[in-house]
Amino acid sequence: xxxxxxxxxLPLYGQAALLTLAVGVAGIAAAALVGLLVAALRYFKTPxxxxxxxxxxxxxxxxxxxxxxxxxxxxLPKLGVVISATQCAIIGLAFLGGSYMAEALRSGLDAVDRIxxxxxxxxxxxxxxxxRHVVLPQAxxxxxxxxxxxxxxxxxxxxxxxxxxxxxLVYVAKDLIGNDYNTVEALALRVAAYLLLLxxxxxxxxxxxxxxxxxxxx
Amino acid sequence: xxxxxxxxxxxDNLARLLGGLWVSVSIALAAMAFSLVLGVxxxxxxxxxxxxxxxxxxxxxxxxxxLPPLVLLFVFYFDLTYAGVNLSGQAAAxxxxxxxxxxxxxxxxxxxxxSIPRHQYESAQALGLTPVQVQASIVVPQSLRRLxxxxxxxxxxxxxxxxxxxxxxxxxxxxxxxxxxxxxxxDYPSAALWVYGAVFALYFAACYPISKLAGxxxxxxxxx
Lengths: 218, 224
What we know:
The complex is a heterodimer of chains A (218) and B (224). Chain A is mainly α and 218 residues long.
């Protein structure tokens, strides 16, 4: 292991880690929104939309991210839909993560007694108010472990986005190996970068889970 | 010349694409078979009374979980060559997915075994069952019911994750797709849409029935 080389490479990895994090955060935020929408549609059994949401969930959960990205990035332009690598990565993560978030939320929603939304509705709250103020706070607290597991899962999945030529950690390492053949340093730095990125997220997620559970007294 | 799905009818393109899918599915099945065999004893060890045994195995599980499978693939495919070990893409993939699958499988086994309440062991003992009988007629049947749907689900995760092997040069369904697209660049300019659409559909066709089976088993055994 050549440590001066490690010093030289460090800034490059810093940039790549930031990009991985930025794409991850944007993708996860989008996935959470998609997940919330899908879970809500299925929870209220909105006709047609609920079935569509179900079909989306199955499609998204039963195909790998690489294949989704290839289709988005290389296939769709043939239909005239051209998106940048960054957009593609974020949309891909949202498409993949949306269903995982939805399923996690759904398990949380199912844990809340049906009488609660019914009571809320009969008290004159709208569906969204009932969801937002009554059901969701409890559902999110129950689903928290699954949701945080999804966050870590999705950050890990970002490792795949280098295939659409986004210079993330995987890409930078591959690039450096190609340039200088310093495989050991390049890969060691990459493993370290992922550990540094994911371990704090994993710990923060656990802390968040605990505070949520205290909040509703589970 | 055509511009769409006809690309599948050229030569044996469709058969090649299916062959490519089989490459990744067979890697997944091989790794899953190893993971089943290794994961069960490792999972039982995870419930071991000795603290250091649990700590070592938890360390292994965390290490494999925190690192993306792609990173592990690169380490085994590119890094090991420096130690003089030259693995083929397939071999590296089977090893990495076995490492990963064993950890996941072991955690499922641990979860299934520890989910059996303490009082069942005690009641069985009080009724005079021997330790072997306790295992055979109380622990194993219940654990298996909890375990099987989750293990079946692990197969779909395995199949999906093996799509990564294209990045260490294994010629699987995506690579074959790329080859078909490149070879037909001039005759079928929009082949990419159809071929990648087909790959998407093929993965779905491979994973969906397995997911459904897992869901069915889960519902069937939930109340029992």
